[in-house]
Amino acid sequence: MADELSLLKEKFKVSEKVIDEIFKTELLPTLKYYTPATDPIAIIIGGQPGAGKTQIIQQAKKDFNNNIVECNADGYRDFHPFAKHIKAYHENLYPDLTTDLAQGLNIRLRRECQAQKLNFALEITLRDGAAVNATIAAVKKEGFTVNLNVLAVNEHWSKLGTYERLEAQRVITGYGRIVPDDAHDTRYKALPNALKDITEKKLYDNIHIYGRTLLTKEDKILQQVVLKAVNPTNPVDAYLKERNRPFTKEECKYFKIW
Question: Which of 4, 54, 134, 221 fits a 20 to 30 Å CA distance from 256?
């Protein structure tokens, strides 16, 4: 499998020049719809795959009256010149084969937001504390306030999130972005130590801890991201307390894990 992946990565590799061209054609023109901020804010949203980061981004758009750029590498995978072919013949490897392009576009978009003083929300998995600290330092250097929003979500919730997203994408397009369980679990297990590294440096300005639960609305049961703590004394403890909390009876019934 590793040999196959290496061969396919080489086959579908995209040059930096092509990434530059895609950025200038597809993403850079969209920034004209945003207004530079006198005191720009960067929201870094962290959590394992399927944790619910999209809900935080949607709320940020409401809070900023849509004057905030969404920097989400997953949204750029389809810009790969061979995206349709990869999804049709290598669906399981789609994330691996498109990650260099997606991350390259995301980095370019973030840097352009910094240069233009545009508010932006950056979605990450928070698996590497040192890398996140470097990003925060670079953003702060450009005069941004950095708010770190962390999703403290049990693995049952996030795995369900990856499955639901996959099926929804398949219904719409016939293909979906598969997140292998081992890839999910690696990021899930790495998050507490990464958060420890980040909070020890404390380069950010504010930190918010979010959880995930059920909401009943018009006789429908919906999954909801909820704020649990703002600038807690010990962010790692607050994160683990929420992530490891016992499920409610309603949640147990929802998952059928009595």
Answer: 54
- Alpha carbon 168 to its chain centroid, in Å, reads 18
Q: What residues contact 162, with CB distance under 8 A and at least 6 apart? A: 49, 50, 179, 184
Confidence band of 257 (pLDDT split at 50, 70, 90): low
- The pLDDT value recorded for residue 49 is 92
CATH code of residue 15: 3.40.50.300
pLDDT at 164: 87
Range of the domain at 225: 2-255
Beta-sheet strand order (sheet of 41-46):
69-71, 120-124, 41-46, 145-151, 206-217, 220-230
Q: Report if pTM > 0.90.
A: yes
Q: For residue 25, how many other CB atoms are within 10 A of its CB?
A: 10
